[in-house]
Amino acid sequence: MSSTLRTVPRLALRAPASAKLSALRLPAASTSSARTLARAYSSQQQRQYQLPRTRKAGTGGILGVLAAGALAGWYFYSKQQDETPAWKKVNYQNVYKDIADLLEDENYDDGSYGPVFVRLAWHASGTYDKKTRTGGSAGATIRHAPESEHGANAGLDVARRRLEPLKQKYRNISYGDLYTLAGVVGVQELGGPTVQWRPGRSDKQADACTPDGRLPDAAQGADHVRDIFYRMGFDDREIAALVGAHALGRCHTYRSGFDGPWNASPTVFTNFFYTELLENTWVPKKWDGPKQFVDKPTGAFMMLPADMAFKTDPRFRTYIELYARDQDTFFNDFSAAFAKLLELGVKFPEDAPTYRFKTLD
Ligand code: HEM
Questions:
Q1: Minimum CA distance residue for ligand 1 atom 41
Q2: Residue ranges matching CATH 1.10.420.10 in the chain
Q3: 88-343 domain in CATH 3.40.30.10?
Q4: For the region Disordered, what residue ranges are annotated (predicted)?
Q5: Is 302 helix (H, G, I), strand (E, B) or coil?
Q6: 93 alpha carbon to ligand 1 midpoint, in Å?
Q7: Can you give the pLDDT at residue 74?
């Protein structure tokens, strides 16, 4: 390759706009600088440039300059793209909408993936330990064994599989962002409060998985629930607000061993967890499965032993009563506590914006 040829791309890369301009002007202007450019782009020997300029030579030069301009434009565009962090290349409103489109399926459970998306977001985040600053949604380690196989996470592969096509569609979104955003969509699209959310989590590999036992054991009581949630940095009021998510969804014998929904509208976000807990009479379920409670009148609804602790523990009960009589306060408190949960342990980029997504019509 001649030295002339090597100079050209550099010239063009530095000044793509002016190179293009020169190219456009070239046929009319036969200034020496225009000639230099034309020559620079030619693959011909220099002596050919000493011949009188022909129409053919001029066209070749123009095409060359145009090509270099295009090349330079492409170079600058791709360089800029490379330097943009992956999380900034995603249109999160579009992801929100696509997740919302995945919710409904009349053949799945009660007709919506919303509840299991909320549970996925919570289990991806609720491994956080504020002392060691490990766990949380930042690494999305819930998708790796052994964490994916911890007993508490049984059944969440269903939610991850449902979301996977969106990870393929939006290659630049992290799993941590996708799973937590799915929780936001689940809450909002099922009628719950707006939950503010930020992007920018980066994924980690299996060696960052948290040890088993960081999520609550449904068979235990108030002390255990406090141990688990205090470790994450929540207080009693926040814990009482978070567990109100049990208005959504149901227990599955083939996942947790427990059975049934908490109320009659498991695909609508309400304060019914609290009203049912306080107003219904709960008796132990007569069966071979783990200890759980069912409502005395119908036996159709359930409470976990850990849920019952919120009724019997006096400090938790204050908030249960508050949320049972005041849905707005519950919605406000849940929104704040859930947003906090999804951000535990995440070091967001300084310029990560906060989103408040509009629900779909
Ligand atoms: C005391 C703490 C908690 C305990 C012991 C607990 C336990 C459980 C259990 C055993 C299930 C049934 C899983 C299955 O069989 O499919 C479940 C489901 C669920 N949990 Fe919790 N949970 C707790 C707190 C929370 C929190 C803080 C949230 C969210 C903010 C939440 C959201 C959900 C949802 C939405 C479901 C339904 C999932 C579905 O329908 O597939 N839970 N929980």
A1: 116
A2: 88-343
A3: no
A4: 133-153, 195-217
A5: strand
A6: 27
A7: 74
